[in-house]
Design a protein that fits this description.
Blueprint lengths: L3 H11 L10 H15 L11 H18 L6 H15 L5 H10 L3 E4 L2 E4 L2 H14 L1 H8 L8 H10 L4 H7 L1
Helix pairs in contact: 1-2, 3-4, 3-6, 6-7, 6-8
């Protein structure tokens, strides 16, 4: 939507690029996340999560949302689920800061049913990042025409880089 904050974020994400090429939505959301992460100012001693941290953690969480088919969650569930994943991966990221960053930028919003991503595009973008990092999840989406339920995931997945030929092979 054309809110002031979204417009400013998109202007910063697009930068000085004056290309007339079609918009790669995966790249645009990546740039928007970069802008959001780079302008975040967390008080205290916590380290601000960077773009890669956010994509990695949120990719895992998006996988959970898609496989469980439950779009709503609590703050505690988000933190617990992501921390469990990070402990297994031997990675340290401040999950609370990531969640606060997303809430502050209205990517995740409060509803009567709990927290949820404001737009499904964010879930699909992060799920595509997860597919890029986890072959098992990529196979789950690509197998058995599951991708027909989520065509945006394929758009984002193939938009990550030009080497997502597995998706093209599967489609043909």
């Amino acid at each position: 939507p054309r809110t002031a904050i979204n417009c400013i974020t998109l202007i910063h994400a697009k930068g000085d690029e004056r290309s007339e090429d079609p918009v790669n939505r995966a790249e645009l959301l990546k740039r928007a996340m970069f802008v959001i992460c780079s302008r975040a100012s967390m008080p205290g001693y916590s380290s601000t999560p960077d773009l890669k941290d956010c994509e990695y953690v949120l990719g895992y969480f998006a996988e959970h949302l898609i496989t469980s088919e439950e779009p709503y969650f609590s703050r505690e569930f988000f933190i617990t689920k992501c921390r469990e994943f990070l402990v297994k991966q031997l990675v340290h990221v401040n999950v609370e800061d990531i969640l606060d960053l997303l809430i502050d930028n209205n990517i995740i919003i409060h509803t009567a049913s709990g927290l949820t991503f404001r737009f499904a595009s964010w879930v699909f973008y992060f799920a595509a990042q997860r597919m890029h990092h986890n072959e098992k999840f990529a196979e789950l989406i690509l197998a058995g025409f599951n991708y027909t339920k989520f065509p945006e995931i394929l758009e984002f997945y193939t938009g990550i880089d030009c080497r997502r030929t597995g998706a093209l092979t599967r489609l043909t």
